[in-house]
Structure formats: structure tokens, C-alpha cells
What we know:
Blueprint: H1 20-31, E1 42-50, E2 58-65, H2 67-70, E3 77-83, H3 87-95, H4 99-102, E4 107-110
Parallel strand pairs: 1-4
Antiparallel strand pairs: 1-2, 2-3
Amino acid sequence: MGGGARRPGSRRVLEEPPTPLSWLKGARLLINDPARFEGARVIGVDEHVWHHTPYGDTYVTVILDVTPVRDRSGPSRLLDMIPGRSKKVFTTWLASQPNTWRENIEHCRDRWIHRL
């Protein structure tokens, strides 16, 4: 099927796949809403790696609000994506959040992404 036509339900293939850094910039647009933190009680943390990029392997730490999953009220919500992959990356991010928000977190779980 030429000329950009595609079958119903098929996925569009990008001519130029996004680089990890361009994807991260796009994700920033999604997570720049401060209201995304409201109601978060359970957070999930995991890492993601893009292989075979012109920049080498690129890691990010992904932080999700998984409260809706625990409460069976909806899907998880993306809270943030931070370049890097280490305990220090996450603890630095967590320390940068307001105390009032951190005090409301009941549970933090590593590897949630693979369980959702």
C-alpha cells in the first residue's frame, strides 16, 4: 500500500524513528502538568534503555503513579522520566518533590512497569 495508505488497525511506521532524547522531550510535554501528582499514593519506579542509538545505550528512570491500578480505578499515570539509571537518580528526584507530597506516599515499588 503506497502513498501512506495503511490497513485499518495497523500501526504507522515512522520513516525516521525518534531518538531517545527527542522522545524524552516529547514525554516532557506530557508530564509538565503539576496536577499529575494529585492523588498519588503508590508510586512505581523502573528503568528503560534504548539500544542501538547513535548515542549508545540511553537509560531513563520512569516514575509512575500506580494508585489507580491498586485501587482498580484506572491505568497508571506517568509522573516523570529522568535521564539516568541509579538509586541516586531516583532519590535525587524524590528529594526534589515537596514534603507534603512525599508524606502522602504510602508505598514505592520497583519494577512496576513490568507488572502492569
